[in-house]
Amino acid sequence: MSDLYIKDSSLSINEVIEKLKEAVPNNQFGILHSYDIKQTLAGKGHELTEECHVFEVCNPKVAKDILEKDMNLATVLPCRISVYTQDGATKVGLALPSKHITQLSDADELSSLIDPVEQTLIKIIDQSVV
């Protein structure tokens, strides 16, 4: 399995973003911040052809539990879901937490915390693309 989970959507980027904004709280997560990368880069004089939005999402209880096991994991929290276009196709994806967090920490019982988070994030993406 890849370290990324990416799904294509026949919906517009704005439609996917609206569905994502509904799916996140419906799955007990919250959106902490969102970034319009294309707009940010344009404001700094760099034009990006494709659309790119990044959403930082978090389940506060799980984040607390993970940080209590290994505070160094603050470097990869919160989780990020990206909504972007590539060659005219709308895509939604994330770097799978089970892949990078377990490479960064050997704290006990992390997988029991991360696996359900990853499954929920995948569910959020799946709900956003249809």
Provide a descriptive summary of the structure in words.
The protein is of the alpha+beta class and 130 residues long. The protein has one domain (4-128): TT1751-like domain (TATA-Binding Protein). 45% of the residues lie in helices and 27% in strands. Strands 1-5-4-3-2 form a five-stranded antiparallel beta sheet. A hairpin with a 2-residue loop joins strand 4 and strand 5. Helix 3 (60-69) packs antiparallel against helix 5 (110-128) and helix 4 runs antiparallel to helix 5 (110-128). The longest helix is centred in the last third of the chain and has 19 residues, at 110-128. The mean pLDDT is 94. It comes from hydrothermal vent metagenome. This is DUF302 domain-containing protein. Residues 36-94 form the DUF302 domain.
Quick synopsis:
The protein has 130 residues and is of the alpha+beta class. The chain has helices spanning 13-26, 37-43, 60-69, 97-104, 110-128, and strands at 4-9, 30-36, 52-58, 79-86, 89-95.
| Helix fraction bin | 40-55%
As residue ranges, the low-confidence spans are none
Q: Globular, elongated, flat, extended or rod-shaped: what is the shape? A: globular
Count of distinct structural domains: 1
Rg (C-alpha, Å):
15 Å
Give the overall pLDDT as a whole number.
Answer: 94
Strand order of the largest sheet: 1-5-4-3-2
- The CATH class assignment is Alpha Beta
Biggest sheet details:
5 strands, antiparallel
**Span between N and C termini?**
23 Å
One letter per element, helices H and strands E, the order comes to EHEHEHEEHH
Number of continuous helical runs: 5
- Would you identify the CATH architecture? 2-Layer Sandwich
Structural class: alpha+beta
CATH topology: TATA-Binding Protein
Query: How many DSSP-defined strands?
Result: 5
Instruction: Give the strand content.
Output: 25-35%
- By CATH's scheme, which homologous superfamily applies? TT1751-like domain
Protein name: DUF302 domain-containing protein
InterPro entries: DUF302 (IPR005180), TT1751-like_sf (IPR035923), UCP021774 (IPR016796)
Domain DUF302: 36-94
